[in-house]
Amino acid sequence: MRIVGLGLSRTGTSSLARALETLGYRTSHFMDGVAPSQWLSRMSGVRPSPSLAEMYREFDAACDIPAACFFREFAGEFPDCLFILTIRPAETWLNSMQRHCERIAASDPLWVSSFGARLHEFVYGSRHFEPSLYLSMYEHHNASVVDTIAAGRLLVYDLCGGAGWPPLCRFLRRPIPSAAFPHFDWIARGQKPTVIPLAGE
Questions:
Q1: DSSP structure class, residue 125
Q2: Cα distance between residue 46 and residue 145, in whole Å
Q3: Which band of pLDDT confidence, cut at 50, 70 and 90, is reported for residue 201?
């Protein structure tokens, strides 16, 4: 593992994944290539759990939850790994997160019993959108990342604010691509979210 995106939902994680792919990194976004059962064991504290190296053996990079929540474990298991914390202002994040939660809850009446709902409970403290709770968890996560990850290994990246290629490529020591930065928002595109059953096999 070479790069882990530590931003939570609605901070540009889909765009970051596409940008890393453009730069040549095999990137897992959200649950791409990883079985939900593997993350459930880690989220539940079940021992032994598969190693992160085993879970991500096909990838160079990972971003979005749940990987973002295990930054201490990634930092310990991959001492040369770099980290990217995508951020956005608290008020705009909360508004975007509310739309996100409303859209996924409306997409399938079974969502509340899905892996995604369990993941929201783990990350944000509740399966249902609770503004003050979600915001406190968002701010606590970002502060913990900055306090934990050494400055030389961490890029704090306002992707949603339009930061684009320059800071990302400087951090990764890659040339800036000729292609436009791949901004992507599944809500804006009207896509239906994927609902993963809790059993998740």
A1: S
A2: 24
A3: very low
